[in-house]
Structure prediction request, 357 residues.
Amino acid sequence: MIIPLAEPLIDKQNANIIYEQVKSSFVGPGKKADEFASILSKVTNRKFAIPTTSGTVALSIAAKAMGLKRGDEILIPSYGVISVINSFTMIGLNPKLVDIKRENGCMDPDKIEKQISKKTKAVCFISFLGNIGNEIYETKKICKKYNLILIEDAAWSLGRSFKNKKGGSIGDIAITSFSVPKIITTGQGGAILTNSSKIKNKVIELIDQGGLNWRKTNNISSIGSNLRMSDINAALGISQLKNLNKRMLMKKKINKLFNSELPSFLVQTSDGIFPSQNVFFSKNKDKVIKKLREKGVMATSQYKVYSKLKAYEKIFRNKSFAIGNYWTKNAVYLPFGIGTKFDQFEFIIKEIKKLDI
Ligand SMILES: Cc1ncc(COP(=O)(O)O)c(C=O)c1O
Prediction:
């Protein structure tokens, strides 16, 4: 038995919806993507949601739409998914790292001010493990004080609610992702979330060849790319968004199981909801991962402190990120997909109990 890291939940109903969409012959970007956008804006309490081909491009486009320019500095957490640092570097921004909090992996607000320079124009806050607790609000306050743009990365916080605010509704602009491991997956996809119609139009220009009406006018006034989501992907997204709450409850149930069987074992979020990935610390990380894999449990290291990625080593030479390093050295990611069955999680827990963590 193999338990993958992130088994998605795609059922017969989802498959039928794709079949119906294909049969309709509307397979490119169109009305279904618009419908997906409309539902998504309600789920995230935003005026506008603009679906894209991935969360990574959503981050690049969000930064561009907010007016960030080549050479501008953007603060990002020291540790996390490669997509975040790449998305900004690809458009010529200079990411600067802020170390994270040991207890939940979020950017540490206490360490932000020290990193702000004259060139700093924005902060990208990753809701790590879905967390929309106090850290993002403290970051928001600092952004306000220094007049910085707050980009909220809500790739893992879709569907969450804390202090009457929804995941994706907190930053000046936000993005989310629908890649396979996420609570809603369109196979590949993302979205930009904003309350400003001006920014929405800018985003559309950037992801649709530079114009809002070019199909009618056969002309453009700015330059853009082609990064829109197709109706096939959107149809899959809609069919899952309809039972987002059920998906959230499944995650909650699994977190409860871990917490009753292995108290204080998994890293938890400060919003007290549930971690969207199952992570724990081990001083024997590599051995533990190897042993779990021998049992078919596809545990992994998942991320690295960005300063240790070969492509970025030179940029961050002589800089040390103690907590990012700690997570790199000790964090073990267990399967967390909602397609993973309850008894498979029971099996994982049984195997963990046998290990020297
Ligand atoms: C926090 C975060 N931001 C952005 C992304 C990028 O999303 P995508 O894989 O859809 O490009 C990911 C992907 O896992 C992510 O975890």
